[in-house]
Structures are given as C-alpha cells and as structure tokens.
Design a protein that fits this description.
Blueprint (H helix, E strand, L loop, with lengths): L7 E6 H7 L1 H9 L4 E7 L34 H7 L4 E6 L3 H13 L4 E6 L11 H4 L4 H4 E4 L6 E2 L5 E6 L2 E6 L18 H8 L9 E8 L5 H16 L4 H6 L8
Parallel strand pairs: 1-2, 2-4, 3-4, 5-9
Antiparallel strand pairs: 3-9, 6-7, 7-8
Helix pairs in contact: 1-2
C-alpha cells in the first residue's frame, strides 16, 4: 500500500515530461498524487542531439525541423493548470535564490506540485531564455508573482500589470495615470487568475511571470485511497486473500 505521507520527487525534461511521458504527467497531476515534478524546459531535445520538443517555438530550426517547427508549443504551466494540478510554479536556472524558494514551496506542498524551470541548453538552443536571465534585460521582461502583492516590474519597479476586463496589460506608473492601487494583485488561490497569468506568454509585450501561479489544498489520491480501504475494513473486516482468490463459485473441469 502507498504511504500517504511519502514525498516522491521526479526530474524530467520538457520532451520526456510532455511528450513521451505526457499521459503519465496529466493523470498524475489530476489525481493529486503526492509527487513533486521539476520540469526542465530548454525548448529542445538536448540529450538526443537537438530534435525539436513539445515546447520548441513556431519556426524554430532544429535537426528534425530544418524548415522550422510548425507545431504550436505546449505552455507547461497552462498544461499543468488544465490538468488540475494543485501547485504550479515557474523559475529559472540562472536565478538560484528564487529557484531555491520555488523548490522549497513545492516540497512544503502536500499533493502534486509542478515546477517549470527555464534551463539554457548551450549546445543545441543557446540563449533561448537570455532576455529573462541577463542583467541588462531581465528586469523589463519578467514579473515576480508574490501572493497578496501587486504585479510590479522594471528596473525601478515603475511598471505594472493591470486587468482590462480579463486581458492583462502593462502600464507605466511614472506619468501619474496609474498607481499601484490600479494594478493586479496576485492571489495564489485563484485558479482563473492563474490561467490569465499563464496566458501572458502569448503576448510579447508583456513580461514573463515567475513564481507560484496556484497553490491549493486538496486531499491527495493516496489519502483518499487509504480512507476507502479503512471504510471497507470497518464494514467487512480485514478480509481473507485466499478466500477471495477461491471465490464463491467453483467448478471442476473433467
């Protein structure tokens, strides 16, 4: 029987986790198994020498797509949210302090936790995430998600994200038209907001969200299974495996 309190960690690439193991991934997340997934996304199949992966960008030239990728890429965070994951986050390999915090948060979460990690592949896809990791550009291209705080970004935190209906837009706080009180305040418990933030990736004029998109508390699959077994035992007793195998109806073949 699975121990309901046991934490299991899995590290995978974007290719293996979303293509070869995609079926296992979505069902593991929707069942809320107590498994922590670190998905390293480098937008390429690195270990198998540079084929395009489920997160490779449209038009990306790889060894297996010399004329450019024609598949729409998976957005790992959106996929995890759609699979009903109870904890979803994003971090970067070049920001170890923030990455450490996201791993710590995943470890503390009871249930399925999914952390996408942007990882540079300097052999087959070098520089894919440099605008988000390099000192000269990162402040204007990423926004950190902090529960209960407005979404601010920029070198002087002079820009922010507000909602225009359900559409996020970047605004300046320097001209006096908007203030911090007009900005979107992050809520880790709001699944609708999590989808809105995940979809910011489709707008190149918006910064890329980093941090915890969603953190909900639900019973794990292991806990619910243990409860079912306990209820069955209370009604029918411990049971007899040999009696079950023998069955109530037997016959002799002559």
């Amino acid at each position: 029987m699975v121990n309901p309190s046991l934490d299991v960690w899995v590290a995978t690439g974007d290719g293996d986790g979303l293509s070869i193991g995609g079926n296992h991934m979505i069902h593991m997340l929707r069942r809320n198994l107590n498994i922590k997934v670190l998905l390293f996304n480098n937008q390429i199949y690195g270990l198998t020498k540079g084929q395009y992966s489920p997160t490779s960008l449209l038009g990306q030239v790889t060894k297996s797509t010399p004329a450019g990728v024609i598949d729409f890429p998976f957005i790992p965070v959106s996929l995890a949210l759609g699979a009903q994951a109870t904890f979803v986050a994003r971090a970067m390999d070049r920001d170890p302090k923030h990455l450490q915090e996201m791993v710590r948060r995943a470890e503390a979460h009871h249930g399925a936790a999914f952390v996408e990690i942007y990882q540079n592949c300097n052999v087959f896809n070098d520089g894919a995430f440099f605008q988000f990791t390099e000192k000269e550009t990162k402040d204007d291209h990423i926004v950190y998600l902090e529960h209960g705080k407005p979404l601010l970004f920029g070198k002087e935190r002079q820009r922010g994200i507000r909602l225009n209906g359900f559409r996020p837009e970047a605004v300046s706080l320097k001209d006096g038209k908007y203030s911090a009180s007009d900005l979107l305040v992050h809520d880790e418990k709001d699944s609708t907001l999590a989808f809105i933030l995940a979809n910011m990736i489709h707008n190149p004029d918006l910064p890329r969200p980093m941090g915890v998109f969603l953190a909900l508390e639900h019973p794990t699959y292991e806990e619910q299974m243990a409860d079912q077994i306990a209820r069955a035992k209370s009604r029918k007793g411990e049971g007899d495996l040999q009696k079950l195998l023998d069955g109530e109806e037997t016959w002799v073949i002559k």
